[in-house]
Give the backbone structure.
Amino acid sequence: MENSGNVQRNPGEINKTKPNVENEIDIVLEKENRIVTIPGSRITFQLKKFTHDTFFTLLVCRREFRI
Amino acid sequence: MPKGVSYIKIGNSWLEVVTTIKLLENDRTVVIRNMGCKKVRKSGDDYVYQALDSCDLKIPFLPDIPEEIIPTEHQERLKISSRFPAYQAKKRESSFIGIRGLGFGIGRTNRSAHRTEVLSITTGFDLITNFGVANIDIGSDVSLIIGYTGTVVIGPHEIKYKINDVGNSNTHCYTGKCINIFDISISSKIINSKPQTPLIIFYQ
């Protein structure tokens, strides 16, 4: 997926909530392994960066990430 | 393909944020939209690669609450014609079942004059339904991958999967077509038929 551009926020920063119908928040996932949680929610995100190039390593990274 | 991935935690499982996920939580609908991931160019000793740097998520909360759905049995065959991450899903009535394949790496093979049979692979894939996610990993210790079966429980479903075929352009060229294939059958049995509020409304 390509860079969407135009979004300038600090890593993990959660934008102020817009009022009304759809409260809407923006999250930037940037720091590896940092858990980001939506306020008032149990929904959590994480970003994992793979620095190795081989396919096998990709699979291994994914497994380690889940532990 | 940048090296890296953004995940959301669903119960005790992980689901990749690809483009859009619609969830139900606390009587509200949460839409998670991946607005784009930035990549950075990095270099190894003698090569360069694209690494994932960050992902921007936009998350609107909608007031609409989906109705309960009656779990539906699925008998599906899903084919992913890529050895890299890809998604396939089938919808039946109001429920869906899908596979997010991470891709696969071929392990042992049995070569003959006319064809190459894949004996083992290393792969990971996620089974996704309205009621949750199961992360499945298959290691290269599986002795016969074609015909390999497994069972997982996701919410009201007991889901059996069977790998029908797997291979890449090196193993599937004997037909004249060089292809990547990950062919899996899924059969879900209902173990709790009560109407339930879905957890995942949409995944793409």
Notes: The two ends of chain B are 18 Å apart (CA to CA). Chain B has a mean pLDDT of 87. DSSP finds no helices and 16 strands in chain B. The CA atoms of residues 17 and 188 of chain B lie 24 Å apart.
